[in-house]
Write a structure and sequence with these properties.
It is built from seven helices and eight strands; from the N terminus they run ααββαββαββααββα. 27% of the residues are buried. The chain starts with a helix and ends with a helix. The strands form two sheets. A four-stranded antiparallel beta sheet has the order 1-2-4-3. By secondary structure, the protein is of the alpha+beta class.
């Protein structure tokens, strides 16, 4: 249950952004704002503490609002959790052995790789011809038909892919402040990388830009 929930959090971002990309009636600015907001909401309640022998993963209350706590505990223990604790703020902490955590990360890695490969076959992203990535998804390249890419909403796939990779690193216990995901957009015809996105840096900058714009509008 725990592994499925964590994998679901990451894969959710891929399909959320996929759905948004096909809705051409929504403006690009609004979609960017939504992506930033959803990222901040999700990351706020996720904590991973890697100890000497065990790993503790704390997930936010919003993931358990419709669940019976007894069922959550039972299913999590069946899935390898040694202890399950509901915290005062409603979040839930799962404790597992390092061995089980390593196994979980291996399964997550397979799921993320499969999801990235599926994007290449998705009719929603016709300009994306190939996606390559390194072993920890920190450097990802999208090979695209440049003209088709620039005249479509396929660019929103970048954020879904980047956020999924970010969460993979978060659940692996990395310091969130040190996580850096680089996404390269490469023209299939020329081999030129004509766009680069760095996450989470570019999302943070996007949020700061919008805050400044709103402040200027208020002053006017």
């Amino acid at each position: 249950m725990l592994k499925k929930m964590i994998i679901g959090i990451m894969i959710l971002f891929l399909f959320t952004v996929t759905a948004c990309s096909s809705d051409e009636e929504v403006s690009k600015e609004k979609k960017d704002d939504d992506s930033v907001e959803k990222t901040e909401q999700k990351e706020e309640g996720i904590e991973v503490d890697k100890g000497l022998l065990n790993v503790e993963i704390t997930l936010p209350e919003m993931l358990f609002e419709e669940d019976n706590m007894d069922d959550v505990v039972e299913r999590a223990k069946e899935d390898g959790a040694k202890e399950v604790k509901k915290n005062d703020d409603g979040s839930v902490t799962f404790k597992m052995s390092k061995k089980d955590h390593k196994k979980m990360m291996e399964e997550m890695k397979e799921d993320v790789a499969e999801s990235l490969d599926e994007i290449k076959k998705d009719d929603a992203f016709t300009s994306i011809k190939d996606i390559t990535y390194n072993k920890d998804f920190s450097d990802i390249t999208l090979v695209v038909d440049k003209e088709a890419y620039e005249n479509s909403f396929d660019g929103f796939a970048i954020f879904g892919i980047g956020l999924t990779s970010t969460f993979y690193h978060v659940f692996d216990g990395e310091n969130p402040e040190k996580i850096k995901i680089q996404l390269n957009i490469e023209d299939e015809a020329s081999g030129e990388v004509f766009e680069e996105v760095i996450l989470p840096e570019d999302l943070e900058n996007m949020g700061e830009t919008e805050d400044t714009k709103e402040a200027d509008d208020i002053e006017e």
